[in-house]
Design a protein that fits this description.
Structural class: mainly alpha
Shape: elongated
Helix content: 55-70%
Number of strands: 0
Radius of gyration: 25 Å
Strand content: under 5%
């Protein structure tokens, strides 16, 4: 005796399968190790700026810009290494 297939089991899912569970799995992780290192170094810069009288807000801003520039360059290099041609 043959069984009748359940409704919708033979149809392919055209791009949608799973809902929120698949969306969470495909989302990028917002915190990566490079961001954690950036935050730690920036917090060290904040502490040095707060406790050292020789370093002003101009130098703190310059070091923050340099640190952020290095972080963005490292993210660009990391993403460029994953490009498929």
């Amino acid at each position: 005796m043959s069984t009748t297939p359940t409704e919708g089991s033979d149809r392919p899912s055209y791009g949608y399968s799973g809902g929120a569970a698949n969306m969470a799995r495909n989302m990028p992780i917002p915190v990566n190790s490079e961001l954690v290192v950036w935050l730690l170094v920036w917090l060290i810069l904040v502490l040095i700026w707060l406790f050292d009288d020789d370093i002003g807000s101009g130098e703190f801003g310059t070091w923050t810009v340099a640190l952020t520039f290095g972080y963005l360059i490292s993210r660009g290099i990391a993403k460029a290494s994953r490009v498929n041609e």
